[in-house]
Design goal:
The chain has about 400 residues and is an alpha/beta fold. The protein contains 12 helices and 12 strands. The strands form 2 sheets. An 8-stranded mixed β-sheet has the order 6-7-8-3-9-10-12-11, with helices on both faces. A 4-stranded antiparallel β-sheet has the order 2-1-4-5, covered by helices on one side. Strand 4 and strand 5 form a beta hairpin. The protein is globular, with a radius of gyration of 23 Å.
């Protein structure tokens, strides 16, 4: 059965006007989300993750400006399928037709998301009464069921509680209940577990996953915690300096990453199985987006950077049907660069945990060393080994614009 696309972001560009000048925060963002699937957007703080989803919700700051692009959202209304560019709706139309009703958002700090002067029950019922004109008695009963759904015991009693009377984990469950009140098609979770302790984090993640399986909603996760991504996502979009620089299935990003920035993110994950007591960090800082970025925005921090990285922005190279990365290292004329040995060992360890060897055979034999298909081998194949092939020796490709690698 063909998958139904419910959200499509195309060439989105967003800037903010500040006292220091114009900051180009989002620089050509593209993203697709299908019904019932989960996409995780990962990257360092300041990479543009939260700004992207705030644009979807229409809640950008007053100094924010949409320079270009579209955000197409597909939903059902009275049995009819409607595709709407959300950027063309006014704030009033977004509030009446979309926010809370068809797209809901869970923020990272539940204490600032909830109204301290209103009871929990009133806040859950509010959206149903406003959007769906649900009778108060019916809304009350549904609110109780929602509290049960998110795992809160004695829901009738909790309906009368105020946010300060609940623990952090319970407050976040209430926020999730509010988000689900109008049965939205899309749930956006902006680092929903950041303010919670580790044990509560796991329960919240399991809760959202369970709700998704029961309701069939689509989910966008915003996080910098790759451990969260591994538990919840079907697809991963890696953002850096306002652009997606690698995207693919969760397995492709974790077990066969292609971009040096993704290598860095994975290497920076704490690993309890490692004997090394040092924690890897990506050298340098993200670029200042007050200034025009020339070439690959990651080039100044990339130890594998080539001359072309400082002159021309790389396109998205296709590695498989679902895996793409914007790095000149995937060009057919680029030198063969392997991921860091420590990261390879970590990935091997993760694979062993995920897929135990069968009949004592090593799953990392030469035959299966690369978990991807021949199509995925890219620059590592014999055909493209070295800087140039016989056919292209001494010449840069057309795609290169004549720039030597």
């Amino acid at each position: 059965m063909e998958k139904k696309k419910i959200l499509s972001i195309n060439d989105l560009s967003i800037s903010f006007t500040t006292s220091a000048g114009t900051v180009n925060v989002i620089r050509g963002m593209n993203l697709s989300l299908y019904q019932g699937e989960t996409v995780a957007i990962v990257g360092e703080s300041g990479s543009g993750k939260s700004v992207t989803v705030k644009a979807i919700m229409g809640i950008l700051s007053g100094n924010g400006k949409i320079n270009s692009g579209t955000i197409d959202f597909t939903y059902q209304k009275d049995g009819e399928e409607i595709q709407q560019d959300l950027l063309k709706l006014t704030k009033t139309e977004m509030r009446r037709q979309i926010n809370g009703k068809r797209i809901a958002m869970v923020f990272q700090d539940p204490m600032t998301s909830l109204n301290p002067t209103m009871s929990v029950g009133t806040q859950i019922m509010e959206g149903m009464i406003y959007h769906n004109h649900t009778p108060k008695r019916v809304a009350h009963q549904k609110a109780i069921k929602l509290l049960e759904l998110v795992g809160i015991t004695d829901p009738e009693k909790r309906m009368k509680n105020y946010p300060h009377q609940l623990s952090g984990g319970m407050r976040q469950r209430v926020v999730i209940a509010i988000a689900l009140a109008c049965d939205p098609e899309l749930l956006i979770c902006d680092e929903p577990t950041t303010a919670l302790d580790v044990t509560i984090q796991a329960k919240i993640l399991e809760l959202i996953k369970d709700i998704q399986q029961k309701t069939g909603i689509s989910v966008i996760y915003i996080t910098h915690d790759l451990g969260v991504v591994a538990k919840v996502a079907d697809y991963v979009e890696v953002m850096y300096a306002g652009k997606v620089i690698e995207k693919g299935t969760t397995d492709e990003i974790f077990y066969n990453p292609a971009h040096p920035y993704t290598w860095g993110l994975l290497s920076a994950m704490p690993d309890l199985s490692s004997s090394d007591d040092k924690l890897y960090t990506i050298p340098g800082s993200p670029p200042n987006l007050l200034h025009q970025v020339e070439g690959d925005s990651f080039a100044p921090r990339n130890i594998y950077a080539m001359n072309i990285d400082f002159k021309k922005e790389p396109p998205m190279f296709q590695i498989s049907d679902t895996h793409f990365a914007a790095t000149w290292l995937l060009h057919e004329n680029a030198p063969r660069i392997e991921m860091p040995e420590e990261l390879r060992k970590r990935i091997d360890s993760m694979l062993r945990e995920a897929m135990p060897p069968i009949n004592n055979e090593d799953i990392f034999s030469e035959k299966n060393e690369d978990i991807t298909s021949e199509k995925n081998e890219g620059i590592a194949s014999e055909k493209n080994e070295g800087i140039t092939s016989e056919k292209n020796e001494g010449n840069a490709s057309k795609e290169n614009g004549g720039v030597d690698l």
